[in-house]
Design a protein that fits this description.
420 residues, 6-stranded parallel β-sheet, alpha/beta, 7-stranded parallel β-sheet
Length: 420
């Protein structure tokens, strides 16, 4: 059996993707250790995995919460810039500390979250095989695919490609310090430098929980890229209390702005006002960013909780109102629940663009955000059956992903999508 190491961001959304995958490998007899900052320790250990802390002095317990609190107060470009400014420091410390910790622990292969862009270099330093895991919206670039931080729609024309090229150039300027940090480490270890963004990812296997059906048409993915389907698993989630007895039986609208984008109470005020008077019941999850008591009374008397048992509620929901986070989106699709997306930051705009493109929901941009706009979108999605008919996603991707990972370790060769 193999000792796998995991490198991923400490954010809940990324851990919620990697933990079910790790648990499937654990079930198959492998050993799995998560190498991360102290803020990821409690959730990791509660899931039954091993944990090895990194950078305890640089990133003491509570650091991630402070970063997410500040990011949760921002929107759009400001939020993206704040997020990207933190990455060079985190990448730099992982590049310095992770190789030694992995070697000492006897790790034999790595699972690297695609958003942990330094992870491939850590694997190269140790000459370890690694698999890239796309827990968020896949980052692989193509000329016809818009940058994930935009709501731009797919347009395979010269104008569309020019627009995308300009967008990627701007994104390259914002991410230059990250690339420089990684390049310095690769020079230090006498590793070949990357020539483009896609070089960061595994040459053996790249796996994405994003179904192929929930993307723009792709033409240039590597032959070892696999769309496996979502990795969520109720058994790996901590049980959460919820007043199920208060559900009335009316169509359930579940609203969650994720674990980051929940420090802007005006969002919940707008959502509640938009749902007031509808023949439906609204449940709002604050994602831990606030307490129900901290909010003013909301119109329509919705059920408001700090954290919600999301997978259980989605089994009962008629509609999800979301910030277009990848996990909430895929979990909604797996339960055939259409969406109203209000994208705020990071890859949310790109996910929202795909919600619109695939016809599984409506999108309300920040510029358009108002009670009438949200209410109109809710009305469309609740009353038009076509949204629900399209909102059928695959589940059970974790077993297929584990099969691919095991084949990489067994053969040491690229695992081609055509062979799985």
């Amino acid at each position: 059996m193999t000792h796998f190491g995991i490198l991923c961001p400490a954010a809940t959304g990324h851990l919620n993707t990697m933990i079910p995958l790790a648990n499937e490998l654990l079930r198959r007899g492998h050993r799995v250790t998560v190498f991360n900052f102290l803020d990821a320790q409690a959730k990791t250990l509660a899931s039954g995995l091993e944990f090895q802390s990194l950078a305890e002095d640089e990133f003491p317990l509570g650091t991630s919460a402070k970063i997410l609190t500040e990011m949760g107060k921002l929107r759009g470009l400001a939020a993206l810039q704040y997020n990207l400014k933190t990455v060079p420091k985190t990448s730099g410390v992982v590049l310095k500390q992770a190789p030694g910790a992995l070697k000492k622990a006897g790790v034999e292969a790595l699972l690297v979250d695609q958003y942990s862009v330094e992870g491939g270099t850590v694997a190269d330093i140790l000459n370890l095989p690694f698999v890239t895991v796309c827990s968020g919206l896949m980052l692989n670039r193509e000329p016809n695919i818009p940058p994930i931080v935009t709501t731009w729609q797919y347009s395979p024309t010269w104008k569309g490609r020019l627009r995308n090229q300009i967008g990627y150039q701007l994104l390259n300027l914002l991410t230059k310090p990250i690339r420089e940090t990684i390049a310095e480490s690769r020079k230090e270890w006498k590793l070949p430098l990357y020539s483009n963004q896609n070089d960061h990812y595994s040459k053996l296997a790249q796996i994405s929980q994003q179904p192929a059906e929930f993307d723009f048409p792709r033409q240039n993915l590597p032959p070892h890229f696999h769309f496996t389907g979502p990795y969520h698993n109720p058994a790996t989630r901590k049980p959460l209390p919820f007043p199920f007895e208060q559900l009335t039986g009316k169509p359930l609208i579940y609203a969650s702005m994720g674990t980051i984008i929940n420090r802007l109470p005006e969002f919940f005020q707008t959502i509640a006002s938009a749902c007031e008077g509808l023949d439906a019941q609204l449940v709002i999850s604050l994602g831990g960013g606030a307490t129900p008591e901290s909010l003013p009374p909301l119109p329509g008397n919705p059920i408001v909780v700090g954290y919600a048992p999301q997978l259980e509620l989605l089994q009962k929901a008629a509609l999800t109102i979301t910030h277009a986070g990848m996990n909430t989106t895929l979990e909604s699709l797996s339960n055939a629940v259409p969406m109203v997306a209000i994208p705020v930051m990071n890859d949310g705009p790109g996910v929202a663009a795909r919600i619109a493109y695939t016809g599984v929901g409506e999108v309300v941009s920040l510029k358009e955000l108002s009670v009438p706009k949200v209410r109109s979108a809710i009305g469309k999605v609740l009353t038009q059956e076509s949204y629900k008919q399209r909102a059928i996603g695959r589940s059970g991707g974790v077993k297929r992903a584990a099969d691919i990972i095991e084949q990489v370790v067994l053969t040491g060769k690229p695992v081609l999508a055509s062979k799985i």
